[in-house]
Amino acid sequence: MTLLATTSIAAVSLYAMLSTVYKSAQVFHARRTTISTTPAQDIETSPVPSVDVIVPCFNEDPIVLSECLASLAEQDYAGKLRIYVVDDGSKNRDAVVAQRAVYADDERFNFTILPKNVGKRKAQIAAITQSSGDLILNVDSDTTIAPDVVSKLAHKMRDPAVGAAMGQMKASNQADSWLTRLIDMEYWIACNEERAAQARFGAVMCCCGPCAMYRRSAMLSLLDQYETQLYRGKPSDFGEDRHLTILMLSAGFRTEYVPSAIAATVVPDTMGVYLRQQLRWARSTFRDTLLALPVLPGLDRYLTLDAIGQNVGLLLLALSVVTGIGQLALTATVPWWTILVIGSMTLVRCSVAAFRARELRFLSFALHTLVNIFLLIPLKAYALCTLSNSDWLSRGSVAVAPNVGQQGPAKMPGRATSEIAYSGE
Fold first, then answer.
1. Which helix (H) or strand (E) segment is 83 a member of?
2. pLDDT of 372-422, one tens digit each?
3. How many angstroms separate the CA atoms of 264 and 210, rounded?
4. Is the pLDDT of residue 143 over 70?
5. pLDDT band at 364; cut points 50, 70, 90
6. Mutual orientation of helices 301-331 and 271-292 as an angle, nearest 10°?
7. Cα dihedral 393→288→319→354 (10° resolution)
8. How far apart, in Å, are the Cα atoms of 24 and each of 28, 164, 213, 356, 394?
9. What is the pLDDT of residues 124-141, one digit of tens each?
10. φ and ψ at 166, to 5 degrees?
11. Which among 169, 229, 356, 420 is least surrounded, fewest beta carbons within 10 Å?
């Protein structure tokens, strides 16, 4: 047996053992629940918190923006609700001007048009400094939320120990292509396995940007750190959601997941856009994993296993694949053990997801294994080697839209993104 074959077998065997322990623990802890941790009597006697919804937008498709704002206008919330739309120097700012005219008579809406592009964080902060609500809900401009999302997230935030809470992410344009269907399943697994398990211990490691609520008092205390994040002396301009979540955990707050608070966001429908998005997310994850390491000892041991499973597991899988390919190329022998182990684990993982979601479509998520091995692993290796690069990889485009004029917000199906808008993990 060659050194390459031995290394591949050893690496994939270690990966299988680690992944089995990690995924078993993850599924065990990932119990979906909408029950608040706040005692019922405290909820009944405490006042309903006011909520400020912040929507930063940059070159957003006018129809997608219209759908987003319409979903916010239709929120069924008993407390005071204010909506702050901030245009971050878009080249198609007429779209925002048109929406400002649509909601001119709705006192809940406030529109701010920045003279030049300053980045998502500063756009958010421009709205935060104008607002005064007890809670802040960040919503991406390509996201629509169900009518009860504000109520359900605010209910979870009635516990003063909770600093942030996120809802469940879905792909609004999942029917567009095989890739959008795959991403929709990827989101379900990320929310209802990874985040749900982390929430069991009050430590969701990334409250997803498309729909995440924060306690205003906590956010204000962290605002300087959030705005001035640096990596190797350079401003870090993406990964806002993960960074802010880690800051909340570092400050001693709990971060939660509310699976019944449904948000649908437009996802990439082409592989090029998807890979550019994944490259940004990978850089953000690697950077903020370092920030999260000091936090882990104060959390449940499962969170340490979670970090090891995601990072060491990825390394072992990459090593087994690379050595397996090397074995095939140099010795003309097929790495059957590596193929068998990865194939078996993929089948088990997809079957468990299909059972938990009660949807057979998750069996087709096996395709994601091929995407992961041949595209995402090389991309993450590149991300690790280029962590200092803070390019969004997407800011040159503008959405050219039909004339929205004075028409009211319409209910329309989600459409594919050209990756021109701000989007969070």
1. strand 81-88
2. 999 999 999 999 998 877 665 554 444 443 333 333 333 333 444 444 456
3. 8
4. yes
5. very high
6. 130
7. -90
8. 6, 26, 29, 13, 38
9. 999 999 999 999 999 999
10. -125, 155
11. 356
How are strands ordered across the β-sheet holding 254-265? Answer: 109-114, 81-88, 51-57, 135-139, 211-215, 162-171, 254-265, 143-145
* The token pair that represents 389 in the structure block: 């690069």
| Sign of the alpha-carbon torsion through 54, 59, 186, 316 | negative
| CB 268, CB 179: distance < 8 Å | yes
Would the pLDDT of 52 be above 80?
yes
Cα–Cα distance between 211 and 167 in angstroms, integer?
6
**DSSP assignments along 92-130, one per residue:** TTHHHHHHHHHTTT-TTEEEEEESS---HHHHHHHHHTT
Q: What are phi and psi of 177, to 5 degrees?
A: -160, 175
Please classify residue 308 by burial: count the beta carbons closer than 10 Å to its beta carbon, then call 0-12 exposed, 13-18 middle and 19+ buried: middle
Query: Is the pLDDT confidence value at 182 over 50?
Result: yes
SS3 326: helix
Do 54 and 139 contact (CB within 8 A), yes or no? yes
